[in-house]
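call fold(seq) -> tokens
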Amino acid sequence: SGKTTIINILNRFYEIQEGRILVDGIDIKKYKLESLRSRVAIVLQDVFLFNGTVLDNIRLRDKSISRERILEASKKIGAHEFIEKLPDSYDFMITERGSNLSMGQRQLISFVRALIMDPDILILDEATSSIDTETEATIQFAIERLIERRSSIIIAHRLSTIKHADKILVLDKGRIMEEGSHETLIANPDGYYRQLYEKQFEQSMI
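ret:
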């Protein structure tokens, strides 16, 4: 429905042909590309992890980011407890693509990485779609800490993730079908959002 396209044009991975995108009332084309991207963090469903320690995967080998700063971010996100239980803790060696970690653990590391960057704009792209129900509460807590005091764009099929968003846009085949808060959208008995929400609620009860 165009979710990936929205991410790409927000980061100017390619330029739009029509219309405008404004950040603080300024057209994004007027920002230096490096400046724009340095203030935006993206957390994807498929987390990129490389062969190296937990520490290096969080700071992307940027030695200017101290261990203390990483520990502080990990504790805030709720990732510190699981990292401390790993053999060698923050010095634990992650294998290529994080194959020796669970999906939830990989996602938590990516959240710490995003928090370390301290972006003005945070984009979460289906960051909870592959998380099991046991890990969901931990991930939800991490997201709540991560989106504090910053503009956050959350793309999700799992509606519990976006329930508390200020504004929800329901997209279908590239068009905005509905927009509003969860309370507004759920109050529409014939709305697309309400149908999706009720369907997911019923599945969770089975």
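The chain is about 40% helix and 15% strand.
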